[in-house]
Amino acid sequence: MIQKILRLFGLKSDTPVKKISAQEFVELYKTQKGTIVDVRTQSEFENGHLKNAQKADVMSGEFARKMTHFDARKIYYVYCRSGGRSARACNMLAKKGFKNIYNIGGFEALKEAGFTIR
Predict the structure, then answer these.
(1) Domains, the chain, with CATH or none
(2) In this predicted model, what pLDDT tens digit does every residue of 84-112 receive, in sequence order?
(3) N or C: which end of the chain has fewer CB within 10 A?
């Protein structure tokens, strides 16, 4: 049944996108460094972002342009304000063949989990 539902929405159960919680990200990042991508707007980014995050606004087309320079063999951790835009960006990466993609959700949850903010 779940397979039919996933296919209905154009998803596969073996998707390379892994949705993890903010706390899981804090722990995972200690041992599996990767590229952190903030897909929020410029003003959101300027009001605070994760340390070492690259800004690539998914709604403006900036993310689509920048992802052409990403290395598909590397690990990518993607976040936004609440998890919707990061899911969209992760799916874009998956469609281009990326395999190590983590949707780490929303900025506020990441701050609360203790990740370093700039």
Answers:
(1) 17-112 (3.40.250.10)
(2) 999 999 999 999 999 999 999 899 999 88
(3) N
